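Ticket #4471: structure export looks truncated?
Reporter: QA, pipeline team
Priority: medium

Steps to reproduce: submit the single chain below to the structure queue and open the exported record.
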Amino acid sequence: MAEPSTKPSIYYACTLPVRAGGQLVNFQHVASLRRLGWRAFAWLQEGSPIEWPSQPFPVPMVQSGPHHKWTAHDVLVLPEVWSDSGWQGMREQGCQLVMHNQNPFYTFRGLPNLDALNAFPLAGALCCSAFTRDTLQAWGSTTDWQVVQPMVLPHFEQALARVGGLSAKRQQIAFMPRKRPNEAKQLQQWFAALCPQWAHVPWVEVDGMSRPQVAQTLAESLVFVSLSKDEGLGLPPLEAMAAGCLVAGFTGGGGQEYATPDNGLWAGEAQLPELALAIASLLAMDAPKQAARVQAGQATAALFDAANFDAQLNAAWHQLLGDKAATYRSGA
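Actual output as written to the record:
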């Protein structure tokens, strides 16, 4: 466990073990900031379980407690879902607070309403997509949101190479039902009823897996069904594209940031019969058309690579810190 820095520093509230994509992204921010020369740390609440084997990135972690004295030069990044009382409590510590909003639909799980968000003295704000920024501003947010899109980890492209590419994929349908469990069941029923010729094709549930296991499953699967819902961006469809899957399903809102007719067969809400038929059409598609769709998806996923992530993150922090940015650099 690292000691808090005595110099102006950036801290991201992080959680171990990592149970959700957004929690992983916070660690990615810290790791990239440090690689880019910023003085950044993962910050854990007092009493948080420390599970070193599950630490996603080798970044220094600081645990809150009496030994950690915040200063007015410290910047703490908190998620949009941080409790209202938690926001108020950290405000009293005297550090600068930045919100990292990875899902506009979860915004008021923390600060209770738009008035509270606009009134809170944030030092700045990050968000995961232009969709998130635009949604919040359409609701009336007056915050200057800095967009930093998360990156698609190289695991997925690497997993596709390991299985032997598109030609080695299994004729199976991968899906993540967590946000739409009932619709996932109904979709399979519609698929069985409308597409009996594909009854032999298995559906593979992606749930409770490690990131490498997810990458392997997607790399082995010909089709990925996006069951995204209420997303700030929605990484799973992008990860599936990187792993060479043919994609069909819902954008979940945030997926509008990258969804095109070429990289997926996208369905509107409640269009389960239409989605079932779209899945069947992907399975029936000839090899050249499948390859063209895979290439379009891979090109989309490539826009979310580490280089673009680093560039957006670096620019965002320069904007947030302004003429004081140099004092937060590791050499300062």
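Status: closed, not a bug. The export was complete when the record was re-opened. Leaving a note from the reviewer for reference: The mean pLDDT is 94.
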